[in-house]
Design a protein that fits this description.
Number of domains of chain A: 2
Number of strands of chain A: 11
Radius of gyration of chain A: 20 Å
Distance between the termini of chain A: 50 Å
Strand content of chain A: 15-25%
Strand order of the largest sheet of chain A: 1-2-9-6-5-3-4
Oligomer: homodimer
Chain lengths: 352, 352
């Protein structure tokens, strides 16, 4: 079992290990004083793990209630959120009680937002069950729901009291979701860690499971370091968006249905690195190394939109951010920086 | 112009003065870097002040947009909130832009909650226009909306960047609202300030306007001191709830429509003080002094529910808070404390 302690506005542990879900009761007891728990999951994850999580908590003498919603990003909405609030009110939850997010990014984001806002804040525990949630969304305290006008537009910063990452749950994950999560894993290597990147270049999608606990721990530690420096997303945290500006534009082009987040980010990292090389901000060789690594995880993909199509999406995004745009560039493996530039300058990169 | 600086998780000023709305542009410029403003008001306040506020901001070169909603507590709902989110998204507001709450408690609570959560937090400015909002709800950073299951059940702590209190706006307030606000004003004297209480006992509802700037400043300073010690409501802040446990029970008995908040709190303070005197926790004389003071502000009222009816409401409330209940007792004018007791013990007070 590995422990990554987080020292943000709240102190807590991220605990990572094979089969550690069985220790849930003990870990929860160490982290919160709560005695009543609201476990939130989607149908897919609920079918596999809900009974077990409830019985592990009940064995400790805790009272448990559960809320299960239809799987998918479409559920991360104000209307599901209102159902969660009603559920919490109906079961008379108090500020001392805890919300448990059991699932992937959608569940963690929405349950976390409910925990941040119901009674102005309850206790919150994350049990991420997808690779993407384990290395990215469960760490750092960003919670949100989507509104019709855009993804994650309404949210809060809410640090959990405990993140429990059981790598065994990845074995019940479709291979496709594992590939998807690898997009963010490669990103961590690129922006902050040459050793991680080189480790990834030794392995591939079929052999990575043997070292997954170590790899997740590295990713989580990198994100923890960044979040500790910039919990409220005013600078350093921007680095985590490597590949995301163009990645989001690709997702938007496909209306968030044709391509997964990890694949879009992978493509975004490739594109921005090749643009950066053209501008002399990194070597051409860096682009090939990135592409080779992505290929090992089946993340070397073709996308429909050309740079011209992406311009449109970037412009749209820009309206939400003001006149300048922050672009994350990797200068070498493990070495990254943010360049603030006028949106027009970045658009001209795309045109060239 | 008086300035009460607040040193909470965010530093900002509460500025109080007669006619200071005209200085809005300058005060805003000193407080935020925002150049785009979303002014939120209900129809009543909007009809009187919206044009003026917009033109004061536009004169400084700012871009302004406004959102006006139907007046009344019923609007403080997830559905109005979603309309506000759509409005903010439609006008492409960013995290650097500011929400301006122009109005009473409903407007401040809801606009503040929108500012706390849209994009995980925008800048926020309060222009409270009711006495209740000026002395209570605009200070301290509590924001919320109601859900069908109860009032203020969903919310966030969000400190504004500026609170602008123009005492001139009270002159457009129906006398009834002035009386209502005085409930909280008397409360501040009782829990923390003998000089304020004595000042209130020299004046009455018709003569108070001559000293209102000074009185509001005292109230705001008291609340500021309490909030600085306990921003996230884990102890000291409880004192601000003097009269509120029974006050809320009275409001609940009337289904939040038959009696105003300030009147319910006034009655709650009287009841709890008379119960405390019976238990030897304060003198009988304290009760008469409080009653005499309340009478000066037309807050000496009869309510329908007896102590038996209130028991029910307290029990209901208790389910949300756990096994114990915190009761605020004034031992003397300006001297208050919190007593944690089992709910059953408090219920037996009501029975005796």
């Amino acid at each position: 079992m590995k422990i990554v302690p987080v020292n943000a506005s709240k102190k807590y542990d991220i605990v990572i290990g094979k089969g550690i879900l069985k220790d849930l009761g003990q870990l929860v007891k160490k982290s919160v004083k709560s005695e009543r728990f609201a476990v939130i999951a989607d149908e897919n994850v609920g079918n596999i793990y809900l009974e077990r999580v409830l019985s592990l908590l009940e064995k400790e003498g805790f009272s448990c209630f559960s809320f299960v919603f239809r799987a998918g990003e479409a559920s991360k909405s104000p209307s599901t959120l209102n159902e969660i609030y009603s559920f919490l009110a109906r079961e008379h939850f108090t500020r001392m009680d805890a919300v448990v997010a059991l699932g992937g990014g959608v569940t963690g984001d929405m349950a976390g937002y409910a925990a941040a806002t119901y009674l102005r804040g309850m206790e919150f525990i994350q049990i991420p069950t997808s690779l993407l949630a384990q290395v990215d969304s469960s760490v750092g305290g960003k919670t949100a729901v989507d509104i019709p006008e855009g993804k994650n537009l309404v949210g809060a910063f809410k640090q959990p009291a405990l993140v429990l990452i059981d790598t065994d749950v990845l074995s019940t994950l479709p291979r496709d979701f594992l590939i998807d999560g690898m997009g963010e894993v490669v990103k961590y290597g690129m922006i902050k860690s040459k050793p991680l990147f080189e480790q990834l270049c030794r392995l591939d999608i079929d052999t990575i499971s043997g070292e997954i606990e170590d790899i997740i721990t590295q990713c989580v530690s990198i994100k923890r370091d960044v979040v500790e420096k910039d919990e409220f997303d005013k600078g350093e945290r921007e680095l985590l968006n490597f590949g995301h500006t163009l990645g989001h534009s690709i997702e938007q082009y496909y209306n968030y249905t044709g391509i997964s987040h990890g694949r879009a980010v992978a493509k975004g990292m490739e594109l921005i690195t090749s643009l950066a090389a053209k501008k002399g901000l990194c070597s051409e060789e860096l682009g090939s190394r990135l592409s080779d690594c992505l290929a090992r995880y089946e993340l070397k993909i073709e996308v429909k939109p050309g740079l011209g199509d992406l311009k449109e999406a970037v412009l749209n995004d820009k309206k939400r951010r003001g006149g300048d745009i922050d672009i994350v560039i990797c200068e070498d493996v493990g070495v990254s920086c943010t360049r603030k530039m006028p949106v027009d300058e970045f658009l001209s990169w795309l045109e060239d």
